[in-house]
Design goal:
By secondary structure, this protein is α+β, with helices and mostly antiparallel strands. The protein has one domain: Cytidine Deaminase, domain 2. The protein has a six-stranded mixed beta sheet with strand order 1-3-2-4-5-6, sandwiched between helices.
Length: 135
C-alpha cells in the first residue's frame, strides 16, 4: 500500500483516507494532510499508529510530524474511528487543541467525515476551508 499521495483533487483526499481505513479495519489509521506550495498539490501521508491501544486511540511519531511539517504546510491530522461515529472524542479535542492543528476524522460505521478545528490555529486556514467545503 502506497503511504503517500499527492493530488490537486480535494475529493481524492477523502477517498484515500476512507480506502485506507477500510483496509485497516482493526486499528485507527492516522496521518497528515498537507499542502506542497511548490507543486500546488495536497499531500496525504499515512503514518504508523504508534499507540499501545491502536483499536481505540492513535499516536504518531513526533519525528515524523516534524519531518512532514518541514516539507509541507500542515492542513490537518487525520485518523479513523473504527467504533462509533465521526464526532471527535474528548481525547481528539484535547490533542487537537494541544497541537493547534485540525483533526479530520473518518468513521467506518457512518462513512462520514468531521473536521474539528482547535481554538488556537497553526495552519493555513484557506486550505482547511477548501477541505471543509468538500465534506
Amino acid at each position: 500500500m502506497d503511504n503517500i499521495k499527492k493530488t490537486k483533487n480535494i475529493k481524492l483526499i477523502f477517498k484515500t483516507i476512507a480506502d485506507w481505513s477500510k483496509i485497516n479495519l482493526g486499528i485507527e489509521i492516522c496521518g497528515f494532510v498537507g499542502f506542497d506550495e511548490k507543486q500546488q498539490k495536497y499531500i496525504i501521508q499515512l503514518e504508523k499508529n504508534c499507540s499501545s491501544d491502536p483499536s481505540n486511540f492513535f499516536a504518531i511519531d513526533a519525528l515524523n510530524y516534524l519531518m512532514f511539517k518541514t516539507k509541507y504546510s500542515i492542513v490537518a491530522v487525520f485518523h479513523s474511528h473504527i467504533l462509533g461515529d465521526e464526532e471527535p472524542s474528548e481525547f481528539d479535542i484535547k490533542m487537537s487543541e494541544n497541537c493547534c492543528i485540525p483533526f479530520l476524522i473518518y468513521s467506518l460505521n457512518s462513512g462520514k467525515f468531521k473536521i474539528y478545528e482547535p481554538k488556537n490555529k497553526e495552519y493555513d486556514v484557506n486550505k482547511l476551508k477548501n477541505l471543509i467545503k468538500e465534506i
